[in-house]
Amino acid sequence: MGRERVKTHTNFQLRKCGKRSLVVVDDNDRISQLPDDILVDILSLLPLKEAARTSVLSSRWTNLWKHTPSLDFDTDQSLLDRFYYEDELLESEKRKYVKWVNSVIKSHESRTLKEFRIRFHLDRSSRKTITRWLQFAFSRQVERLELDIQNYSCSTKYYCFTEKLLTLKSGCIHDDPRHMLFKSSLKALVFKSVILNDGAIDLILHNCPLLEQLIVHGSREISKLEVCGSSLKLKHLEIAGCPLLKSLKVSAPRLTTLIVLLNFKGLLLENVPMLVNVSVICCSDCVSIKRIFDVVLSCCISQLQTLCLGVLGLYNTLPGDDNSGEINELPKMPKLKKLVIEYDGSGHECLSRLATFISLSPYLEEFVLQFRWCKLPREDRQVKDAIIRSPHHHLKIFKFCGYYGATNDAELIKYILENCGALEKITVDPYFVWSRDKLVEETARKNARQKLAPQVPQHVELVIL
């Protein structure tokens, strides 16, 4: 007996596992014999345009892609970079991008969305279009929403998020954002180059009880922010590039990861018993490292497993440069496994003092130094104070970004080689951040091969990038 051919209509409905579509297929085409929901899951793993192309395979595949729960409207980074210099190209590609998103939204049939992502160079001129996209996402009970506008223009042209979107019901916007009509199903929210104010974020936290991840980059109206609440399910909080933000108070019992670009004087942490991953970057000059540890991180320093500490600004000093006693007063980090230090300097700073951070972290396994220096030529600096020998038994990986081969570079690596008996790998990256100078980088590589390589024991892998 032959199988019955089933026609696919516009009112196509997914068939669950165990209820396979009855279609005539080639005996070798076993994938088409899978249940619809499994095929949709497979399509959701493909880039959106590739998933849409499967509609031409056969009538069986015509509407399957329209039910994918993930709509990721990504754009190639190389194209986004060109927009910075080519205005005509930007306008042409913008029209194509808007048309693409609109066409997909118009034909999409899934009642719910796991992900909705916009990544393109847009601005306030597209505000009505962007708002319609967000309305669509919220009406489909989106779980992860990302609006990455990639805007290089003046911040006055940024898209402004309207709080009324958070009171959607059946795709309509209501006048009073304080009148809750439903609770959003959002679990992750990412806004980049989008204008938000303090009230909008407060409303997001209030209206999204399932929210676990909140990322805000480049918002120009946030000034005073409180992320507090015993019922918050927030696990990941990331705030960066918000120049008017003067204070941030965080009290979130489930928070595990915090990434903040903010003046340390305005950051207050309370009730963060699960916080284990912290990345804090300070943009102010002459900030005491001791203050960072004693004031900002005091409530969580003993539980941290990963710490990324950024010290930006040419006048910032490494611990101990101006007060040799200060570094000895820093608290221990008994659970720290990975340490990343991002340091901007002239290039002549005494890097061997960073060894103290290793001794403060007895179970540290990975240490990454990103040294962004700006002055050429790099002068050799005489190390005034000998660093006290302190054997370390767990450090396995050391990566040095910004390596040049000057005396201060060599002293830090020498300390690590002599004191870290469990060391397995050293990576030196000569990438010169301030100016991609191939001659400078090649000089650094030459120094690494001639001066550093002979010092590295055979059991330690040396990688020169």
- What's the overall geometry? globular
Secondary-structure element series: HHEHHEHEEEEHEEEEEEEHEEHEEHEHE
Structural class: alpha/beta
By DSSP (H or I, 4+ residues per run), the number of helices equals 10
What would you report as the Rg, rounded to the nearest angstrom? 27 Å
Uncertain spans, ≥5 residues at pLDDT below 50? Answer: 1-12, 15-25, 170-182, 320-324
Tell how many strands the DSSP assignment holds.
19
Biggest sheet features: 14 strands, parallel
| Assembly annotation | single chain
- Estimate the mean pLDDT confidence: 80
Distance between the termini: 65 Å
Within the largest sheet, what's the order of strands?
1-2-3-5-7-9-11-13-14-15-16-17-18-19
Helix content: 10-25%
Q: How large is the share of residues in beta strands? A: 15-25%
Describe the structure concisely:
With 465 residues, this protein is of the alpha/beta class. The strands form three sheets. A 14-stranded parallel β-sheet has the order 1-2-3-5-7-9-11-13-14-15-16-17-18-19, with helices on one face.
Write the layout of secondary structure elements.
Layout: H1 36-43, H2 48-53, E1 70-73, H3 77-83, H4 87-107, E2 115-119, H5 127-139, E3 144-148, E4 159-160, E5 188-192, E6 194-195, H6 198-207, E7 213-217, E8 224-228, E9 236-240, E10 247-251, E11 257-261, E12 267-270, E13 277-282, H7 289-296, E14 306-311, E15 338-345, H8 355-359, E16 366-373, E17 397-401, H9 407-419, E18 425-429, H10 438-452, E19 461-464
Parallel strand pairs: 1-2, 2-3, 3-5, 4-6, 5-7, 7-9, 8-10, 9-11, 10-12, 11-13, 13-14, 14-15, 15-16, 16-17, 17-18, 18-19
